[in-house]
Amino acid sequence: MRRLDLRRLAPAAAILVAVSGWAPAPAADEPPQKQFSDALAEAKVNLATDDGQSYDRALSQYLRQRNAAVLSGCFKANAQPDVTPFDMVFRLAKDGSLLDVIAWPETNISRCLGDGLKAETFPAPPRDSYWAQLRMSFGR
Length: 140
Fold this sequence. Notes:
The chain is α+β, with helices and mostly antiparallel strands. It is 38% helix and 26% strand.
């Protein structure tokens, strides 16, 4: 996994990105934490693949170039940004469009970032329904 340092954009922010492979969408009737856990498990298993490592590099570069502005906007939009660390998993279609996004624990920053990612088209993953992980932590 690569660490992306966004300290210049948000208070000592660091993004850790990991990617995964195929998994079905979480069941909508499952509790959010269970949905998140299932998707995260898929992300971690598939990161170990050659495709996962290659996509991790491409996704890391993309996030460094494109999504720093989204995160910065989230901090500006929230008078009291919650800097609790969180993980986010998002499922991508074969064309790189976002199908699902789940964050745990949910914070005002994770909600904002998830909403901001919905408009993005990511690099095309190796296959359809590809789970990626984003880990966020903030220094104080």
